[in-house]
Amino acid sequence: MQATVQTGNEQPPSCNHCGSCDLFTREKPPHLGLYCRACDRWIRWVSQNRPIELMPFGKHRGQAIKDLPDDYLNWILENVGLKGSLLRALEAEYERRGRVAA
Predict the structure, then answer these.
(1) Between the CA of residue 35 and those of 6, 10, 13, 23, 41, what are the distances in Å?
(2) 17 alpha carbon, distance to own chain's centre
(3) Buried b / exposed e across 8-19, counting CB within 10 Å, b at 16+?
(4) Is the pLDDT of residue 100 over 70?
(5) Computed from CA positions of residues 7, 10, 16, 18, in that sequence, does the dihedral angle turn out positive or negative?
(6) Shortest CA distance to 32 belongs to which of 7, 16, 49?
(7) Is the predicted pLDDT of residue 21 greater than 70, yes or no?
(8) Which of 43, 76, 81, 95 is 20 to 30 Å apart from 67, CA to CA?
(9) Are the C-beta atoms of 53 and 62 separated by less than 8 Å?
(10) Are 35 and 27 in contact (CB under 8 A)?
(11) What b/e sequence results for 43-81 when a residue is b if at least 16 CB atoms lie within 10 Å of its CB, and e otherwise?
């Protein structure tokens, strides 16, 4: 996925390496990266504002969150310091299954 990035009223972001403002996004699942078209270097990760559907790491990497085993879902919520969209996705699945999130 490649698209030129526009950031509203602020100065457009530029490449720290070559100074170009010709930037685009490239998907590197589960992330979306901002890259320079001139030198093809990574600039930063950008928000995707979309729910996470696949487990991005661990024993069940690549598996749909809705298909995670109950015991694993319980364990990861109680034992791993998650934050952001992954935490929200796992808590939503926990609640969907009829439980109160850990």
Answers:
(1) 13, 18, 10, 6, 5
(2) 24
(3) eeeeebebeeee
(4) no
(5) positive
(6) 49
(7) yes
(8) 81
(9) no
(10) no
(11) beeeeeeeebeebeeeebeeeebeebeeeebeebbeeee
User: Which H/E stretch holds residue 93?
Assistant: helix 84-96
How far apart are the C-alpha atoms of 20 and 38, rounded to whole Å?
A: 7
The pLDDT of residue 1 is above 60: no
Tell me: the pLDDT tens digits for 41-95? 998 888 766 678 888 888 998 899 999 999 999 999 999 988 888 898 999 999 9
Question: In angstroms, rounded to a whole number, what is the distance separating the alpha carbons of residues 12 and 72?
Answer: 43
- What's the whole-number mean pLDDT along residues 9-33? 80
